[in-house]
């Protein structure tokens, strides 16, 4: 059974600035927000701009604010929003490029700062030895390795809103994933980076909003608290 819904989209362009635009269309109980946006772009307004790719909550491309909350458009069913008018906006705390597309470059720059890779001992690199990950270690690290860099946690984070230099939830969760890996040898160096009083872990106020909005059930807030424990040892 189909029903009519109004999508109120906050649009933006360098030439016009920001404005709201409404689109009406019929949807059913299986229609996601990203499917509705694609239909609008195809059937009503080809100038509407947004990102989307996998439609399975894996690529992280379609992050946006839906009814005021950071969500992935491909995982958000319109019927579950419980209203006939849905507001759609670009994510907070990022520069807007056009309409619902934001610039995520700042996240990637911050990611590079924490050395986002496992660096094994020299004898392993030279092929003279090997290191293995125990099942219990893999279980501990697995959830923190599921980040898809969608940016939702940055949009929800109150610290990022006031401190643009803060490394942020996703990057710090990634830092924990590598620092807690027993195969890694750069844990101490990485901890020195994230212990920085301006950009590091001590800026986190444990609001927990990052963990609430994560579509992959990563818990950045928990990762940051564990990094704090590691830095104090």
From TrEMBL:
Pathway named in the protein's UniProt entry: Carbohydrate metabolism; tricarboxylic acid cycle
Domain 4Fe-4S ferredoxin-type per the UniProt entry, residue ranges: 138-165
Superkingdom of the source species: Archaea
Molecular functions per Gene Ontology: 2 iron, 2 sulfur cluster binding; 3 iron, 4 sulfur cluster binding; 4 iron, 4 sulfur cluster binding; electron transfer activity; metal ion binding; succinate dehydrogenase (quinone) activity
Keyword NAD: no
Pfam families per UniProt: Fer2_3, Fer4_8
Positions of the 2Fe-2S ferredoxin-type domain: 3-94
Keywords: 2Fe-2S, 3Fe-4S, 4Fe-4S, Iron, Iron-sulfur, Metal-binding, Oxidoreductase, Tricarboxylic acid cycle
Broad class of enzyme this protein falls into: oxidoreductase
A single GO BP: respiratory electron transport chain
Similarity comment: Belongs to the succinate dehydrogenase/fumarate reductase iron-sulfur protein family.
Name the UniProt record assigns to this protein: succinate dehydrogenase
Annotated organism of origin: Acidianus infernus
